[in-house]
User: Fold DUF7595 domain-containing protein from Urochloa decumbens.
Amino acid sequence: MAIAAADVHGTQKRRQHKVTPAPLPTDMVLEIARRTDPPTLARLAAACKDLRRHITDPSFRSRRLGLRHGERFAPPSCLLRGQLVCRWDKDLYLEDNTTPAAANGAKSVVAADLFNGADDELCLPVAARGGLVLIRVINPKNHVIGAETTVRVCSAATGRSQSLAPGPAFPGHHVLLVGDGANGGGEVGRPFKVLKVGSTTSALQIQTFSSERGTWGPKTMIPSPFQTSCNSLSPKPGAYLVVGDAVYWLCRDDNSFYVFKLDISGEARLTMTKLPPSFHRECGLPRGRSVPHVLLATAWAAGSPVVLVANHGRISTWTMTTSGQTARWTDKPHVVVEYEAMERLIDGVLDRQLGTVRLEWFAEMTGVVLLSTPRYGFFWLDLQSGYIIRHYSRSLGLRTYPYEMDYLSL
Assistant:
């Protein structure tokens, strides 16, 4: 009986032994990855280092999107997930505009807990780029203007976040730059840099945090390329454009508009170009404190900068062209869209005058511009085609940033 019992026990152990299935071939996994949506791809790569290594290969990226570098934007349905929304009553959340419910006006909130601080903390978005979000964390009860604040970089795709080391003490604004690949990604899994940029009327001062080093570099002072009456030369939050290792932003003195370019690919360099007379006429010639609705964008993915102006019942653009070391702006504007095209999307209203149209943000990977109106909500403008591809209603008075789900943000 003892032998029989032992036999039964041994049989049960053999039955309980699980056979580990053989892993799928890498080629098959990559083929599955090419056919899946960005959120699912992000989750796959977050769990598999080998897959992540293949995804960070630029050749995989171009094959999956079916694009050649610099040719066109990625389709909004591929990468533009929604917008990061900040309410001044402490709520900071991500609205997912890609769900079926969102198409009918419902709000789908994603990864809200990632952006929430402690009970006495307020999380303020500074930038969203390449799937990463830059946030300032302050205590509104004890906050002093100019005091040091905590700066954090988050990935809503993976739920990872990294608080930066205590940074520069000089006043200024933070700029987020995101790199390709997984090397040097630190705690969020993707390489990035954060610039602290401050200024006087005669010089720009910058200091850079690198995820590869995990520390801030030395402070650099760069003289202004010309004398200006601008109160500040530094880029304002949400009012600048990043192309590779270059940051572009608008500066206006008493009579003219300029575009500044800060290139940090090597030794930091600051250059500027003056916008043409036709641009100033479209803006109504800047006077006093009046600010036209102006936005920087690119003509194609990581391509030449363009400046958009919303005025006179239309949205117009001017494009930067480069010849050797010389950059200049086109003299004649290109009309992207007339307000009438937007008004035709508004159903059931006899008086469909849009009123003031604001240029809120530009999604750098998909080429979508968010337009807002005081009466009829928001519109998505596909900059490359000139078509309005989406219209929806939301509460105005919110601070928003585009959130593009880049499957390399791991």
